[in-house]
């Protein structure tokens, strides 16, 4: 039963990824069709992020009351309905209104399933969970690219709606399985520790929580900028057409998916801390590729490596949360970390859109460089605070490879 439930959780995370990359791939065509300035895409993404922040901060109380299964099913239905609305939206106002349920649903799914997997499964499964998310964000640009070549962005959103609706039906169908798995765990003496809900304000007073939140904020800001503005960077700074750019940016999502798959494979040999550190070194090198005066083809390589290197951080940091902060507090801490993640999307990704429109999208790799340095610094500081030495870990890694 636990394996069947894990598979369904993976599928739900595919659904979580579908909306995240869809808007960025569609926006160059959307703003032209609706007669809007390019920077107004930031308004929609900011509203989505606000919804995810609200649902993340309230997640501990909601999940403790209704259960992970019910929250997951209801939230998936909510996101499917929002995507359908996007396909029919006649104006920016409707896009903004529909962004609210899209954000609320995504935040609830993200927080609920991440904590459940962190508590009940190994690091390998957490990485494969986010590999499933990578499948979702990889499929979306393909759907949109095909729709743009054969019709309009509305058909792309309609195709995404059909995928999300099928996933929603699956999450509803397996609701009884959650109770069966919980009862089986209790019979084996594996009952969870009683969750302790602590206010977000109390948590962020702790230095270790603040450092963890900074890691998530900057890392997700990298994702948000790539998700929302990767296509615009290729169109405005590298001279690609909208359709070609929507297809080309897919290499970033392929990098995310492969990075998390490889991280899942390596999780049996390397610790979560080592996987995060190595991944961030790859991200830093990838940004240097984007900064270098190379042919346009190098942009594809750089985007792929950014996705590949940054991808292990999110699942491995989440899997570390119960170990760093305690199992009974993990749901509350993960909720705060999720909120910090979405602040990165809410504040920094839209801010880059304004800067990009004003000064030029050539600043895309510069922004990624600054954020990658923040991630590295905050991660090392957090691990040092918790007693982990990066130098000693590197020495152990060399010995294990020898």
Notes on the protein architecture:
With 402 residues, the protein is an all-alpha fold. The protein has a single domain, classed as Up-down Bundle (Growth Hormone, Chain: A), CATH 1.20.1250. Helix content is 85%, strand content 0%. The protein contains 18 helices and no strands. It has helices at 2-34, 41-57, 59-66, 68-88, 92-120, 123-150, 153-173, 175-187, 200-204, 207-236, 242-248, 250-266, 272-291, 297-310, 313-325, 330-359, 364-385, 390-401. The longest helix has 33 residues, at 2-34. The chain starts with a helix and ends with a helix. The model has no long low-confidence stretch (mean pLDDT 84).
Task: Kindly summarize this structure in a few lines.
By secondary structure, the protein is an all-alpha fold.
């Amino acid at each position: 039963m636990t394996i069947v439930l894990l598979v369904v959780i993976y599928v739900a995370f595919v659904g979580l990824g579908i909306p995240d990359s869809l808007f960025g791939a569609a926006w160059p065509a959307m703003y032209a069709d609706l007669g809007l300035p390019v920077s107004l895409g930031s308004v929609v993404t900011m509203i989505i992020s606000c919804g995810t922040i609200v649902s993340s901060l309230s997640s501990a109380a909601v999940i403790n009351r209704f259960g992970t299964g019910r929250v997951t099913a209801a939230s998936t239905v909510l996101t499917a309905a929002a995507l359908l609305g996007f396909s029919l939206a006649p104006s920016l106002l409707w896009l903004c209104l529909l962004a609210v349920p899209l954000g609320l649903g995504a935040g609830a799914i993200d927080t609920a399933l991440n904590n459940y997997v962190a508590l009940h499964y190994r690091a390998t499964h957490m990485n494969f969970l986010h590999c499933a998310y990578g499948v979702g964000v990889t499929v979306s640009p393909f759907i949109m690219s095909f729709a743009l070549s054969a019709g309009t962005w509305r058909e792309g959103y309609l195709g995404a709606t059909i995928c999300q609706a099928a996933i929603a039906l699956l999450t509803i169908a397996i609701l009884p399985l959650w109770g069966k798995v919980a009862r089986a765990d209790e019979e084996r003496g594996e009952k969870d520790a009683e969750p302790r809900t602590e206010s977000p304000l109390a948590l962020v007073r702790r230095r270790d929580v603040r450092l963890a939140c900074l890691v998530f904020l900057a890392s997700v800001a990298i994702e948000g900028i790539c998700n929302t503005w990767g296509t615009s960077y290729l169109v405005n700074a590298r001279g690609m057409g909208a359709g070609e750019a929507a297809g080309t940016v897919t290499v970033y999502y392929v990098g995310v998916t492969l990075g998390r798959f490889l991280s899942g494979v390596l999780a049996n040999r390397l610790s979560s801390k080592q996987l995060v550190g190595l991944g961030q070194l790859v991200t830093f090198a990838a940004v240097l590729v984007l900064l270098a005066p190379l042919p346009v083809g190098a942009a594809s390589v750089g985007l792929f490596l950014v996705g590949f290197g940054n991808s292990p951080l999110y699942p491995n940091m989440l899997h570390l949360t119960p170990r760093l902060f305690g199992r009974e507090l993990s749901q509350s801490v993960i909720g705060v970390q999720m909120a910090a993640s979405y602040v990165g999307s809410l504040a920094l990704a839209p801010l880059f859109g304004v800067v990009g429109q004003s000064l030029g999208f050539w600043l895309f790799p510069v922004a990624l460089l600054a954020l990658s340095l923040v991630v590295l610094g905050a991660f090392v500081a957090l691990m040092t605070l918790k007693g982990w030495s990066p130098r000693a870990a590197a020495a152990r890694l060399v010995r294990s490879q020898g």
